[in-house]
Amino acid sequence: MMEMCIELQDLDGVVYREFRFKFGMQDTLDHLNGVIESTWNIAQKYQELFSEDGRKLIGFGEDSLQSLGLKHRSKVIFRHARLGTWSEYLAPSEQSLLIKQSHVQKALEDSGFLIVYASFWSTVERYYQSNDEIRGQNAKCVKAKRYNIFFPEVSQR
Q1: Of 112, 27, 86, 12, which is closest to residue 61 (Cα–Cα)?
Q2: 81, 47 in Cβ contact below 8 A?
Q3: 154 bridge partner residues
Q4: Tens digits of per-residue pLDDT, 77-107?
Q5: Mean pLDDT computed over every residue of the chain
Q6: Euclidean distance between the first and final Cα of the chain, in Å?
Q7: Strands 2-9 and 75-80
Q8: Of the ranges 16-25, 88-97, 132-141, 148-157, the best mean pLDDT one
Q9: How many CB atoms lie within 10 A of CB 109?
Q10: Taking a C-beta distance cutoff of 8 angstroms, is the pair 58, 20 a contact?
Q11: Residue from 17, 10, 15, 95 nearest 48 by CA
Q12: I need a labelling partner for 56 at 20 to 30 A (CA). Which of 9, 48, 90, 142 fits?
């Protein structure tokens, strides 16, 4: 048996959650992905796994954990694949806040990102509160632009 610590981290190495799990000597990368999915409800396609030394764990699903260099008391670092999207969400953008909100936040929500990094919700709430007035103005602007695109003959009168 191999007991491993699995940590949920962000890009700066901050640990948000962790758990320990016992794997058999022949357990595979697919099994590790399944354990993470059942624990944190994050699909395998959104899982990025790293060894303690920062090496990305890449292999075929049937590859044994030992063949990937993992052993008893190894630490596996899990990062959600949408961490870059979160950075985009926080970064100032010239695009409309309305567009930013609809596309980026939907990608974060659909991938389970805000479930696994639950503490990030407070940032989302602050973003909404501080930008309510701007979003209202942008919504009117976007609606007017959309009307001009689809009905140019009416808007020229």
Answers
A1: 27
A2: yes
A3: none
A4: 999 998 887 777 676 554 545 555 566 777 7
A5: 79
A6: 77
A7: parallel
A8: 16-25
A9: 13
A10: no
A11: 10
A12: 90
Token digits of residue 127: 């973003």
To which residue do tokens 């008391």 refer?
A: 73
| Distance from C-alpha of 57 to C-alpha of 121, rounded to nearest angstrom | 29
pLDDT, position 110: 81
Question: How high is the pLDDT of residue 153?
Answer: 46
* Domains assigned to the chain: 2-80 (3.10.20.90), 83-155 (no CATH)
Residues making up the chain, counted from first to last: 157
Look at the alpha carbons of 145, 151, 152, 155 in this order and tell me if their dihedral is positive or negative.
negative
Q: 133 is written with which tokens?
A: 């007035």
Among 30, 71, 76, 17, which residue's Cα sits nearest to residue 51?
Answer: 76
What band does 60 get if pLDDT is binned at 50, 70 and 90? very high
Edge-first strand order for the sheet with 47-51 is: 15-23, 2-9, 75-80, 47-51
What global pTM score does this model have? 0.68
